[in-house]
Write a structure and sequence with these properties.
Layout: H1 16-37, H2 43-56, H3 61-76, H4 78-98, H5 114-133, H6 135-152, H7 165-173, H8 182-215, H9 265-272, H10 284-313, H11 330-340, H12 346-353, H13 360-374, H14 386-405, H15 410-429, H16 440-452, H17 460-479, H18 485-539, H19 544-565, H20 570-590, H21 594-603, H22 605-614, H23 619-633, H24 661-664, H25 673-679, E1 687-691, E2 697-705, E3 712-716, E4 721-725, H26 727-735, E5 739-741, H27 747-763
Antiparallel strand pairs: 1-2, 1-5, 2-3, 3-4
Helix pairs in contact: 1-4, 1-6, 1-8, 2-3, 2-8, 4-7, 5-7, 5-8, 5-9, 6-8, 9-10, 10-27, 11-13, 11-15, 12-15, 13-14, 14-15, 14-27, 15-16, 15-17, 16-18, 17-18, 18-19, 19-20, 19-22, 19-23, 20-21, 22-23, 25-26
């Protein structure tokens, strides 16, 4: 990096700007350390109180007491923890000031424990939530910090030290994930979530005022930096596992949401708005819901215009316009939905499965109209209200989006079909379903999706999970009237079952990783030994007996010592010396030096015995092999030649994943080296989305990375193996649009993103929610 003083003395007229910028930087650092340090004030005590209250009704008394003791221990170290926290914030500023790259994140190749995985997920979710909530002030602050960086004479490649990730990661670093009880960890992050948004919002406002006073309003928009050919600093996959970078050129990885077009910042805040009244701006959730409804109204108006245009073009449609009639009462529609709640769900299941090409919202509407006529209500005289139309379309698009974004099988289609009417009733009476993450119906749909995603029912545990989800869905269909507690109870029960299975799948992941690692070590040992044997066999002519010994027994012995003791271990080096000694003995035999041959063979008795025993030969077989070698060496004029080693057994090489053939029809597709380099930056826990030949998406994540080959073990949401690929192969999939590097959102959140993207695409004329083929069928 080039600083102003590196090029000689600067002109006197310009010496004031760096001094002023340095003072501004120091003031921002003080403001940030002071403000963020206040996050921990009272946090430990509040978490202890929360754990104590939760323990009063806990079933496991000892676990509750352990959590309480751990909470008190943190409170006793409050001063030391606060000092460490402030130091971490200051270090983030120093890294930005020195334009240093981010520090490496430990051993990214190792398997994570359950506590580490849960801590990482909690940290990642909180960072994403804060990024979404503070999207606009953070974007403006990034621009102003870029101006400050230019005034300081630094490149500005390091990430903004005021971003939410800094305090969240500093807080997580204070905690031992394996020693922290789960209930205490949840309480701590809940307390942090309650305090941090308002503190960050106030800090951003003060930082903006400081930068405005120092550099003026013109600093609000940072001048674009020309791309000078240098490598753009620190690419960041969605999910927060690397640092942010600028976007240069048309790169498929530069789009933070490459799946289905851009998401508006308004929707991102809506998805992050878990509690509208606690988000810092009262009524925010209501305003964001209005944004979705506005898009929905535009889409429905476009469909109505298209239908009117078609009707006007048809002959005999020149009559007077139909007079406006009052809308159907909500209570009447709810009573019909209640009657349909236990009916045959196959019409909805066929749409979800793709057998029926109509929109699910249209099918729901037709079923409701059929029910209304059955109840003696004429829909033409009492049409659905606009709010009811919104609820029907939102539920329809939502359920179809869930199927598009997850790998759901036939049994899942039936489960979702049964849930359509209960969720429509919820949407008709409580539109917070679409904005509050903690909504009980939303939590149940998340749990059902996780239970069904990629679950083929091949094992007894998988079938049991599907059956359990089916029983809970039946209970909701039978019992739900108006009390949403039935959703909460079902969600809690299914979540407990999922947690139990998740612990089993973590063990299965570790076993799969160990099996892959063992196979790779064996391949590495075999290839290393094969090269060594080939080199020895090609060095000089040998008798057939000695060549056979080297290529079979010695090769096997070298492989075992490599695996057991390592390639540089004394035992492995001694095994190599045994083969080299046998080659020298063969040369001495060719020179008719019988005394040297006999002396060397006597010295090799014990090493030869170890070599034969390593291959599983008993004493009699070992003596037979030794006799064959001695007989060959006893003839100086025996035929000697250069031998070629037997080819390696390639049965250990895994077949390429079928998804790779979708890239260019081969098992070794071409890849972009830049993307491959970024794939090597990924770490265990990174989320992915895989797209099959039919365009269907499925959730996946990186469970393990091989320390030998850097290959990635990719599993689905339930921890079942999907593929094992190299970074280059993953780069080919990303470049071909068959894989997307992004965070793993909750199923409902992902479906809401799809909902917004489809509405936006449809209203912009880019496809999206196209009208159903053909005219509407009569109910």
């Amino acid at each position: 990096m080039t600083h102003p003083h590196d090029n000689g003395a600067a002109p006197r007229l310009r010496t004031s700007a760096p001094v002023d910028a340095a003072r501004v930087f120091d003031r921002l650092r003080r403001e940030a350390v002071t403000a963020l340090g206040g996050v921990l004030s009272g946090l430990w005590g509040a978490a202890e109180d929360q754990v104590r209250l939760a323990g009063l009704g806990a079933h496991d008394y000892m676990a509750a007491q352990d959590a309480l003791v751990a909470a008190r221990g943190l409170g006793g170290r409050a001063l030391a923890l606060a000092a460490t926290f402030r130091a971490s914030v200051e270090q983030a500023f120093e890294r930005w000031r020195s334009d240093a790259p981010p520090a490496p994140a430990g051993d990214a190749m190792a398997l994570m424990s359950e506590g580490q995985l849960e801590m990482q997920l909690a940290t990642q979710q909180l960072v994403e939530l804060l990024d979404h909530q503070l999207l606009h002030p953070l974007a403006a602050l990034d621009a102003r910090m870029a101006v400050l960086a230019s005034r300081l004479g630094i490149g500005g490649g390091a990430a903004n030290p005021l971003r939410p990730e800094v305090p969240v990661m500093a807080f997580a670093a204070l905690l031992d994930p394996d020693a922290l009880p789960r209930c205490l960890r949840e309480a701590l992050f809940q307390q942090l979530d309650r305090r941090l948004p308002s503190i960050l919002a106030d800090l951003y406002a003060r930082a903006d005022a400081v930068l405005d006073a120092a550099f003026g309003p013109a600093a609000a928009t940072a001048p674009p930096r020309a791309h000078d050919g240098r490598q753009a600093p620190a690419w960041r996959p969605e999910g927060g596992l690397a640092e942010a970078r600028e976007r240069f050129g048309d790169d498929p990885l530069d789009d933070p949401v490459p799946a289905r077009g851009p998401l508006s910042s308004d929707l991102m805040r809506m998805l992050a708005d878990e509690d509208p009244d606690a988000a810092g701006t009262p009524g925010a959730g209501r305003r964001e819901r209005d944004l979705v409804r506005e898009q929905l109204h535009r889409w429905r108006a476009r469909l109505a215009r298209d239908a009117t245009r078609d009707a006007d073009a048809a002959p005999g449609n020149d009559g007077p316009p139909v007079a406006t009639v009052p809308a159907l009462e909500a209570a009447e529609l709810l009573s019909v939905a209640r009657l349909l709640q236990g009916d045959d769900p196959s019409p909805y299941a066929r749409v979800l499965g793709g057998d029926d090409r109509r929109r699910l919202g249209e099918v729901i509407r037709l079923e409701l109209l059929r029910g209304l006529r059955g109840a003696g209500i004429d829909p033409d005289r009492a049409p659905l209200s606009g709010e009811d139309e919104d609820a029907i379309d939102l539920v329809g698009i939502l359920f179809q989006a869930l199927f598009e974004a997850n790998d759901l099988m036939q049994q899942a289609r039936d489960l979702y079909g049964r849930l359509v009417m209960p969720y429509l009733k919820v949407a008709l009476t409580d539109d917070s379903l679409f904005s509050q993450r903690g909504h009980p119906a939303r939590r149940l749909l998340d749990a059902v999706t996780e239970a069904c995603d990629g679950n083929t029912g091949d094992t007894a545990l998988d079938r049991d999970l599907l059956d359990h989800a089916g029983r809970l869905v039946n209970r909701v269909v039978e019992e739900y009237e108006t009390d949403q507690a039935v959703f909460a109870l079902a969600a809690e029960e299914l979540r407990e079952r999922l947690d139990q299975q998740r612990r089993r799948t973590e063990v299965a992941e570790r076993r799969a990783a160990e099996a892959i690692h063992g196979r790779e070590r064996l391949q590495q040992a075999r290839r290393g030994v094969a090269g060594l044997v080939a080199e020895r066999l090609a060095a000089q002519p040998l008798t057939a007996a000695v060549a056979r010994f080297l290529d079979q027994h010695w090769r096997h012995h070298l492989t075992r010592t490599w695996l057991r003791d390592g390639p540089q271990s004394p035992r492995h080096l001694a095994a190599i010396a045994t083969g080299d000694a046998m080659i020298r003995i063969d040369a001495d035999a060719a020179a008719a030096d019988g005394a040297a041959v006999a002396e060397a063979l006597l010295a090799l008795q014990a090493p030869l015995a170890d070599c034969y025993a390593s291959g599983g030969l008993d004493a009699a077989a070992a003596r037979e092999e030794t006799t064959r070698i001695v007989a060959a060496l006893a003839q100086p004029r025996a035929t000697r030649s250069v031998h070629a080693p037997v080819p390696d057994d390639d049965t250990l090489d895994e077949a390429p994943d079928p998804l790779l053939r979708l890239v260019d029809g081969t098992s070794t597709p071409a890849f972009d080296p830049t993307i491959a380099l970024r794939m090597r930056q990924l770490r265990p826990g990174q989320g992915l989305r895989l797209i099959d030949e039919h365009g269907r998406e499925s959730v996946a994540r990186i469970a393990w990375i091989s320390p030998l080959t850097a290959r990635l073990l990719i599993v689905n949401r339930r921890g079942m193996r999907r593929m094992v690929v190299s970074p280059e192969e993953l780069a080919a999939l990303v470049g071909a649009g068959r894989a997307v590097v992004r965070s793993i959102d909750a199923p409902f959140d992902e479906a809401m993103k799809h909902l917004w993207q489809q509405l936006s695409a449809a209203n912009d004329g880019d496809g999206g929610l196209a009208p159903a083929d053909g005219p509407r069928a009569a109910p």
